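Supplementary Methods, section 5.1.

A reviewer requested that the exact input to the structure prediction be made available. We therefore reproduce it here, unchanged from the version used in the analyses.
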Amino acid sequence: MMRFGFLSRFGALKALIVKEFQIIWSDPKNRIMIILPPILQLGLFAFAATFEVDHIPLAVYDKDRTEISRALIDKIAHTPAVERVYPVDNPADLTRLIDTQTVYGALTIPQGFASRIYQETPVSVQLILDGRKSNTVQIMQGYLTQIISAFQYEIQSVSFPPPVVRIVLRHWFNPNLDYQWFIVISLTGVLAMVMMLSITALAVAQEKELGTFDQIIVSPLSSFEILIGKSVPALLIALMDVTIMIIAGVFMFGIPIAGSVSVLYACIVSFLLSIAGIGLFISTLCQTQQQAILGVFAFLAPTFLLSGYVTPIENMPLFVQRLDVINPLTYFFVLMKGIFLKDISAATIWANVWPLLIISVCTMAFTTWFFNKRLD
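The structure derived from this sequence is encoded token-by-token as follows.
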């Protein structure tokens, strides 16, 4: 008898999961929205959302007008990061180019530049940067500093003492500092979160708006089983999208997977379960799909900005860092980058998986309680 009751409830749960799949998959527009946008966004953002700075326009005011100063300008002009050099003859033109944002910065070479180099005496050049583009000009400053520092060693007629300390630089885990490795890995988590959150947040709200919510209530399933039935289709669809993005990352962008693939998918499932709980809670709170969509956007913005994707978490205020312990995306970034690039230890994996499991259990428990309260 107990076995028959279990089979009956399992059959009802299976029917609910199949129904959810049919609702999501029956509409051709839904099929396109599920598969196509994540792939297009991954390809677009992987090339567009770059941390590299190139095609730099730069103004140069050469007061020295010597062979040495012209050689420096030529070296800067032929640097791959510099798109164009604008020579100016007076400070007014230099100011105008910066004010109109024609250039990102201006380099002024003083009179006596060449003679001081020949005399091996210190010489300063002035670099004016457009503070409106703070991140860009900081990277640009690093480029130009390296170019000018290396220039003195390339002058044939002047000898310089060798440096006392020689730095040998090596980059672990990303030897070529390929920014696409970071972008693609991070975007996989962001796009999976958006997909999972969108489907689960609309699950209950859609039933309420269409008037079919009462049919689910009278089913033999408990509130928790109804929420599970709403989560499983979204979980499988999100896993499918993540798999496509991982394949694209490996074969299109050459990103290695240093760790175990099975452990990687276990971490992905933990992350998606935590997002499912949050999405269902949003859906339970809302009465219409429009409200659910607004709730999704209200959750996505702070989650993304505080995850460490844009700004290092260590640079944030202390109270924000403490608030970030409930951000699933923070843990997922650590897991994805660690398993893809470093093959992190089991202890590190568990240290980032158990918070995701706690978030999943707490959100699902609170959603079930609130769901029952709404039914009452």
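The chain is about 65% helix and 5% strand. These observations are discussed further in the main text.
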